[in-house]
Design goal:
Elements lengths: L21 H5 L5 H10 L1 E6 L3 H14 L12 E3 L11 E4 L6 H6 L3 H11 L3 E11 L7 E4 L8 E2 L3 E7 L10 E3 L27 H6 L3 E3 L5 E5 L5 E3 L8 E10 L3 E2 L25 E3 L7
Antiparallel strand pairs: 1-10, 2-3, 3-4, 4-12, 4-14, 5-11, 6-13, 7-10, 7-12, 8-9, 8-11
Amino acid sequence: MIKDWSTEDKPSGKLFALPKTKVEWEQYRLSAEQVEFFNENGYLKGVRILDDEQIEILREELGEIRNPAHPAHHLFYEYNSNESSDPNKILFHALGGWRLSAGFHDLLWNPAFVVPASQLLGGAVRFWHDQLFVKPAHDGGVVIWHQDYSYWMRTKPMAHLTCWIGLDDSTVENGCLHYVPRSHLWNLLPREDFASDMDTIKDYLTEEQKREFKPVAVELKKGECSFHHPMMVHGSYANGSDRPRRAAVINVIRDGVVSDSNEPLLEGVPVVPKGEKLSGQFFPLLFDPSAISS
């Protein structure tokens, strides 16, 4: 029988055990300096949220659900075996892996993720959607410069956060993320095809923004993550190395964000009428700091 993990609104226990006391929860808190850096620059890198055993579980499950013949394949919101516009490159990209896999389902509730997310969002954390990326060795494709919120304007207010989690070491050579510091303070830029020309964004920048366009490479060890603001300009170059670059991405919202559309927010998900709060089976509450007892 095919299981849709979205029917479970709590972790199964496959990846970790939830903390039992406030002290146990607070070991995952970011420092004041880390929060300040995020607020100033629009991103934070190098937060470890997975150990080697957890990484191996997720790698194995990614290999299984990436197969188009997987019996629960229809549960993906989106599935692109290759989203690259370059026929010589490959970019696997899918949304909805949490519905197919116990590991990727449980990852959403990881205390090492939800506690920092709550600090950066300034409140309770609710799930928006997940993503899976694979850039194979030698021919992994690019992800163009973009701002996540340009794809998410069907929700409001803008109280979103992205966590990018490396399942491999990510380096300049294998196509790590690059951020443009402080670009989260810019205006919303036009949206382009996700995996086309890296230079397209330059057509839309002001002269001042062009001067400020100084990307930094965000190299991470496997199991580390980076957090970024929904207006952060970011992208990643091709993987020309002999190592894959696999990643899981969790996108969350502050509890209280509402739908701004009368169309389905995600493929196959029931409509959340415009003006109604995101909640329920497909948008579960992940963490409420006010509910933690001593």
